[in-house]
Amino acid sequence: xxxxxxxxxxxxxxxxxxxxxAEGNKPRDKWRIGTExxxxxxxxxxxxxxxxxxxxxxxAILEGMQxxxxxxxxxxxxxxxxxxxxxxxxAISLEPGGQFELSxxxxxxxxxxxxxxxxxxxxxxxxxxxxxxRFLGLGGSPKxxxxxxxxxxxxxxxxxxxxxxxxxxxxxxxxxxxxxIQVNLDFESEADMRRKMQVxxxxxxxxxxxxxxxxxxxxxxxxxxxxxxxxxxxTDNQRSGLLEFCFSPEFGFADYVEWALDVxxxxxxxxxxxxDMTHITFxxxxxxxxxxxxxxxxxxxxxxxxxxxxxxPDVRLKRFLEMRGxxxxxxxxxxxxxxxxxxxxxxxxxxxxxxxxxxxxTYEETLxxxxxxxxxxISAPVRNTTLREIARxxxxxxxxGLKNRGKKNRDGYDETSFLNTLDEVVARGxxxxxxxxxxxxxxxGGSIEPVFMEYAY
Length: 457
Prior knowledge:
Blueprint lengths: L13 H9 L10 E11 L4 E2 L8 H12 L2 E5 L2 E6 L6 E4 L5 E4 L6 H19 L4 E4 L18 H13 L3 H7 L3 E5 L4 H21 L5 E2 L2 E2 L5 H5 L8 E2 L11 H9 L5 E4 L2 E4 L5 H5 L14 H9 L2 E2 L1 E3 L3 E3 L7 H15 L2 H11 L4 H14 L4 E2 L2 E2 H19 L14 H9 L3 H10 L9 H4 L3
Parallel strand pairs: 11-14
Antiparallel strand pairs: 1-2, 1-6, 1-7, 1-8, 3-4, 4-5, 5-6, 8-16, 9-10, 12-13, 15-16, 17-18
Helix pairs in contact: 2-3, 3-11, 6-12, 6-13, 11-14, 12-14
């Protein structure tokens, strides 16, 4: 999230929190695609991490991008920590370890998404390459230890860094040493949200498997295909993971609100200052628990929007749905991830087919898949078959959905070509992570250094 929300309207009751989510309902002609992708900056000389400050640091890249794009700076305690397009059509932000993120504009087609991603990468390369900096498209930092990884001067991250070790063993790795590609998608009603939430939760392990791209940690194989997927199994299980209550046939906005109210908060912002609120839940906040701790210690709609942004389930509900299961990857994956989910969720026939395919999958079965995927990838078992075989059916449904959408580029091609990189994974039966591990044991000569050349932007 590029910039935390400021909205001073007081919260009067529970129904306002539900209505906040319901305001995301949009007619189908207003549905859009918002793609986010993160990447690790590194110095070409020595493949070292890039700190925030200095003439060749993250701040200098942001300042160069600001000059080039004319976007507004996002300032935290006097320091630039991001940029936002003046009309809200996109933003650039920093993850805790310096991961450089583009939060794309809400667009109508994958063609536009791919052009946006390519333009961003060209722009950031133009600024960064004269500094000797390139960017790595992986799901996990392959070389640098947690101690070697830079820390970005962002107030919310200082609070999270103190809190994470109290609630899980891998939260700091999540913050500082992972990257993702996400897509944000719309819904037209509570019923439509429910269908999309349930289908996408059940298929999120498949997304993790298809995009598995983080097999190295601390310069050696970590025994996993998606280290990032494994990290999310013990980051903060109060606010992340697979949400069992979402599998209910009656699941709705109010159920998500009930859950969110009982998750500990991270912060509230008052007069630009971040106050640590990790000791109370939002429900306790609403009951007045912070009345004497912070100025204006009663909750606002801005506090609620910020709280929703600090929840990390596999599919996150805000005024749209966020698909959160995929590792970061090379540039082709930036287009493939939104294509995969748009094909499944934005065409009625495709959504019907995906729902029929997964309708009998239980929470326990989906959780078992989620737990198996970080190590086994698309070979993970599903009932009497494997995820690879399930992937064949799901890819066909996604391809059908994209074809039915009929969104063509100037040359007359529809969006289905953006799935080709995932078709390759299914056809060969090996993930990107397995391909990297094979290279490590053969032509890379037991070194992870070549990854900085072959997977760099």
